[in-house]
Amino acid sequence: MKALIQRVKHASVVVDQQCIGEIEHGVLAYIGLGHEDDFAAAQRMIDKILTYRIFENDEDPAKFGKLDKNVQQIGGGLLLVSQFTLMAKTDKGRRPDFGGAMAPAAAQALFEQLVDYAKTKHPNVATGQFGADMQVSSVNDGPLNFLLEI
C-alpha cells in the first residue's frame, strides 16, 4: 500500500461537475492498493497518515517552524482519493505497468473499509468516488509531499 500525501490549504474532488469531497487546511492523500494489501495494512496506513507530523508548531517557541504537529493536532481535514496509478511499475520502458495494483472490485471494498476506519479515527474525512473520472483540485501548502509505504 502506498499513500502520496500532500499538506494542503484547500482540496476538493469534482465528479460530473458536482463537488463530492472537500477539505480546508489538512491532508490530501492519494491511496494506492496492491495485491497483498488487507484491512490491517489499511489501518496502519490511516494511523500513519493521521499521526505523520507535517505541520509547523507555531505555539512552542522552541519548536517554531519545525514540522512537529499532525493533522489531528491541528484539527485539519483529510481527503482520501483512491489512486491505483501509484502502484504502477515504471522502471522499464515508457509505459506504466499496472500489474501491481489490486483488482478493482477488491480494491473498492478495501478502500471503503479504509475510509470507514479513517472516519472512526478523525472527525473531518472526505473522499473521492472510487473508479470515477475525478477532477482533484488542491492548493499545496509548502509544497510538502511525502510518499508513505506500508
How would you describe the shape?
globular
What would you report as the Rg, rounded to the nearest angstrom?
16 Å
End-to-end gap: 5 Å
Compressed to H and E, one letter per element, the order equals EEEHEEHEHEE
Q: Structural class of the secondary elements? A: alpha/beta
For the sheet with most strands, the description reads: 6 strands, mixed
Mean pLDDT: 95
Strand segment tally: 8
What is the C-level CATH assignment? Alpha Beta
Fraction of residues in H or I helices: 10-25%
CATH architecture designation: 3-Layer(bba) Sandwich
What's the short version?
The protein has 3 helices and 8 strands. With 150 residues, it is an alpha/beta fold. Belongs to the DTD family.
Describe this structure in words.
It is a single chain. This protein is α/β, with parallel strands linked by helices and 150 residues long. It has one domain: D-tyrosyl-trna(Tyr) Deacylase, Chain: A (3-Layer(bba) Sandwich). It is 23% helix and 37% strand. It has 3 helices and 8 strands, in the order βββαββαβαββ. The strands form 2 sheets. Strands 1, 2, 3, 6, 7 and 8 form a 6-stranded mixed beta sheet that branches. Helix 1 (39-51) packs across helix 3 (104-121).
Task: Give the topology.
Elements: E1 2-15, E2 18-23, E3 26-32, H1 39-51, E4 55-56, E5 67-69, H2 71-74, E6 77-82, H3 104-121, E7 125-127, E8 135-149
Parallel strand pairs: 3-6, 6-7
Antiparallel strand pairs: 1-2, 1-3, 1-8, 4-5
Helix pairs in contact: 1-3
